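Lecture notes, structural biology module. Today: joint structure prediction for complexes of two components.
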Amino acid sequence: MTASLRLRLLVGAMLAIFLALALAWVGLIFLFRNHAIEREVRILVRHAERLVADVTINSSGMPQVHGEQQDPRFTEIASGLYWQISAPNTVLHSPSLWDQSLPRPTDAISKRWTHRIIPGPYADHLLIVTRRVQIGTDGPILIIQVAEPDTDIEQSNREFGAQLAVSLFVLWVVLAIAAYMQVTLGLRPLVRLRSEMDRLRKSPAARLTTGYPAEILPLITAINALAEARESDLARARRRAADLAHSLKTPLAVLSAQSRKARTSGAVIAADGLDRAIAVVGAALETELTRARSAAARAAVETTAQSIAFTMAERVISVIERTERGENIIFDTNIPPDLVLPVAEEDLAEILGALTENAAHHARRHVRLVGVPNGLRIEDDGPGIALDRMERAVKRGQRLDEAGTGHGLGLSIVRDLIEATEGDVAFDHSELGGLSVTLTWTPRV
Amino acid sequence: MRVLLAEDDPDLADDLKRQFMAVGFITDLATDGEQAWYCGDIEDYDIAILDLGLPKLDGLSILRRWRSGGRTFPVLILTARGDWTEKVEGIEAGADDYLAKPFQLGELIARMRGLIRRAAGLTSPLVSLGSLALDTNRMVVEIQGVSVRLSALEYRLIDYLVHQAGRVVSATEIAEHLYGFGDQTDANTIEALIARVRRKIGADKIETRRGLGYRLTGAHE
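The predicted structure, tokenised, for the full assembly:
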């Protein structure tokens, strides 16, 4: 039960609604019974008042009832409708009572009509109205009683109770459904929160949106503050790792110098060992830097970073055409100037740099960069035999740490960056004769 | 050959200087940015080896100052970082080549020789032709005072067309000049190169004579 907030709220609501409806059932039955009794009392009082109108006192001071019985049930034995007039020394009653009599009240009798339920003849319970009457100023005090069994009242009360129970049960079901919907609606922001938390877990740069109900908003603010702290911690750690890696590169170059010195002074074995160690450390540093770069690219996916493909392609080409290999290659670009890719500039520079350099490396004369919808295609006129090798190196390729330094690492950076920026890469044969690499990204909404 | 070596790490600097001297380069060492800028500004070097992470004044700033001050000697950048953004920034600041640490000494020296050779091959510093002016040292073409940087290949193409002033040159002839006699480069490749150069210097500067070849139009202006 404690595991689910929804179940807790739902069970609570259903129990509360059930209790409220049960109380309502009891209360309504009570009111209905009172109402039924009042109605019967009014009828009995009407009978009684007509009876009083027929009563006279004879010369010997005894009460007498004149005229016909107003209701035939007064004449039928045990019919269910009875009257009784009690004087100090005599008792008159309706023929329907036969040899029975109504119990005389023991307490003081009011001059107004009062009613009560009493055990009576011919029935378990009788509803009886009673009043004290004095005919004339000096006549005897008469106690007028008219009664009938409460069987009808009890019967209609039971029927009403049963019908009410069915109605209230239906109402309970409807209210339970409403409670379910209410709970579901009320908890919906939490469902959204859960999916947003997933995004937050995947990317340190992600934040929760603030369109939440006021009750949850402080929690959202606190979580976002935590995410902020986590992101800056991560960024700091990455920066430190990158700084550390960079700061080790100059000492590595120095070590290379020492190794050369050792070699020229005849310590060839020592120099070889030193060179091997330098190569291993160098590769580890490159791997670490690549990791830092991919992590930064992954974080940038959440931001609105973007690059103009044409500008970046031209800038990268301007570097490659200055290299020994690139200076004899014709770089041909056909990229719409308004083609914008959802990748941070430094990441696109890395991806395009490595792929264009690779194309220039294999090309005979010609490298072409073409804009495609949401992406770029890089083609060369090389022998084009490297299709499966490229696919292995870039797509399914080795893990970074296995790739080693040099060419392979450049391409595995590409793979990592394309993955990190949620892009896709496809290989094909180019119409120029060599390899065609197509990069695409899903545009951000 | 005079080399300016701007490197702040004493061990690496000493070793490089010794190695440079061993292959016949006379080397001046600058150990901070200000000193490096000053040396490059007043002395004529055949090449400068510039570490980007220098104290006092960073390598890119030095390079920009040299270039805006008209210093045209080739510059090879050395840096601890090796990413493309930095390569692009270096080249855009006016560097001619780029090497990331740690590097092989042999590669550094080979690249230095390549840069020196390339700069030395371009003897006449300025060739003017109509609205076009070629700065052969920086491999820059100036169009009405605005410099446009060209790749070596593009530069060789314009240089060739300038020297054929007014003559229509076929794609085959251009390919032979750029790549050597008997080259199999097809006309489409040369067309791509022409298109690229046109985009840089203006489409009207190179005229296409259908079925014949190309002609630089600036010669008659």
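Point to remember: Chain B touches chain A at residues 9, 11-12, 14-16, 19, 53, 80-85, 87-88, 91-92, 96-98, 100-105, 111, 114, 149, 151-154, 178-179, 185, 188-190, 192-193, 195-196 (CB under 8 Å).
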